[in-house]
Each structure stands twice: as C-alpha cells, then as structure tokens.
Protein: Glucose 1-dehydrogenase
Amino acid sequence: MIDRTSSYLAGLFSLEGRTAVVTGGSSGIGRAIALALARAGASVVVVARRERELADAVADLRSHGCRAAWVGADLGSRQGVAEAARGAVEPFGEPDIVVSAAGINLRPPMQELGEEVWDATMAVNLDAPFLLGQRFGPGMAERGFGRLIHIASQQAFRAFVTSGAYGVSKAGLVALARSQAEAWSARGVTANALVPGFVLTPLNARLQDDPARVEELAARTMTGRNGVAEDFAGAAVFLSSPASSYVTGQAIFVDGGFSVH
Ligand SMILES: NC(=O)c1ccc[n+]([C@@H]2O[C@H](COP(=O)([O-])OP(=O)(O)OC[C@H]3O[C@@H](n4cnc5c(N)ncnc54)[C@H](OP(=O)(O)O)[C@@H]3O)[C@@H](O)[C@H]2O)c1
Structure:
C-alpha cells in the first residue's frame, strides 16, 4: 500500500534526475526553495553574491544527502548574469528548472527615488530573470520540459510600505511569466510566479524591528501569522514537478490569505 502511494506521489512530484538553478538560494525564500527542490530529488545550483552564505546553504543541502553546488555572481549587471549562467551549468549541466528568487527592496520614498535605485532594482529583480529565461528557456523547449519560477510580491498588484521601483519590478515579473508561458508552454516549459505576503526573512529585517508593524501585517492575513520561508517549499516543488504541467502563466499567491482579506 505504502509502495503504491509513494510511486503515485513520485510520478506527480519527484524531481529525481532534474537539475535546478535557484538564484537567491543562499537566504530566505530562495534557500528554502533550494532545499525543497533538492530534497524532492533535483541537483541544485544556488546563485548569489556572498560566498560564506552560499557555502553554508550548500553544506545544509548536502547534509540532507542532496546534490548541490554554488556559483558566486552579482546579478545586478548583465555581465554578472552571463557569468552566473556560465557557472550554473558547470556542476550538473543545463537546468530543467530555474527559480528566480534573488531580489532587493531598497524602499526610498517616491520623491527621493532616483535613477540609481530604479536601475539597481530593475537589474536584479526583473532584468536578471528575463536574461536567464532567454538563456535557458529555448533549451528547455527543445528538450520538451522546463520550469521557470519567479518570486513576485503583493506589490505587483497593490501599493503599500513604499512600493516605489520594487512594486514596478515585481509587476514586470508577473508579466514576464506570462510572456514566457506564451512562448514556450506548448513545448513543455511552464512559467509562473509565486506571490508571497509578508515573510520573515533578512530582506525586511528593518520592518521587523517594529513589532507593532509586524503584528499589524500578521493581522492582515487570514491565517493570523506572517509567512516563513518554508511556506514556499510545497508550492515550489509543485510548480517544478510534472504535477503542474497544465499550470502556466499564473501568479500563485502563497500569502496566508493576505491578498483576499
Ligand atoms: N520577504 C518577503 O516578505 C518577501 C515578500 C515578497 C516578495 N519577496 C521576494 O522573495 C525573494 C526572496 O526574498 P527573501 O525575503 O528571501 O530575501 P533575502 O533573504 O534577502 O534573500 C535575497 C537573496 O537574493 C540574493 N541577491 C540579492 N541581490 C543579489 C545580486 N545582486 N546578485 C545575486 N544575488 C543577489 C541574496 O544573496 P546576496 O546578498 O549574497 O547576493 C539572497 O540570497 C525576493 O525576490 C523578494 O523580492 C520577499
């Protein structure tokens, strides 16, 4: 009975034999997703800038018996993205799954939002996922299987806590998933965005300094709590797996009901 159940579940969700690249896989949501995909069977390459955090994340994945490697690269420039793409294929070959979780949120008030913050935000949050899609999407389509997963934000849909350039970049990402889905879904490549609520990670450490604000955000959910990085494990495995082959071009909210409350 157990064997029948596990082979059924493996057919739906196993990532055995797949290769994944997870940008931002050294911290927060990206790190939790990297671990989830690796534990579901994928060989995982994590990409970010800080080497100590990357090595720590890879050690964690390997401690679970997973295949993992890291590439240090700055996705804030086109050259950095090209270097990341070159390095990412070295350990395990061309990826079947690319998760773009690397992101920055600089939050200056709109009237102080200059070109530098705008450009830096667009480069990491939007240009890098686009460039990685252009690099890896066509190969996935040729091979007949691929998964492009973007981490968007509530601020793609509504403005709050100084959405500025960040909200614009995330709205672009939701549209990018649709464009990629339109291009490649007929050849087995799906593209989707996951939409978090407020998740307790280093990204919003500054907001977390204000306990009243954190409570207020938790109260805006239906579950009564803010998100944690591990909340994204199941959705990421689903979107990476054969089970989601008919789900494409979507923005899937993993937010405890934040968006519908
Ligand atoms: N936390 C939330 O409430 C929340 C809500 C909505 C959406 N999100 C989105 O979820 C994603 C993950 O965020 P998180 O909360 O998990 O944040 P996090 O813990 O700060 O992780 C961000 C990751 O991105 C990497 N990164 C940042 N800039 C980079 C660059 N220029 N080049 C390469 N890697 C870079 C970081 O590593 P290095 O700094 O070492 O490069 C780190 O691994 C982001 O796209 C974020 O916008 C988060």
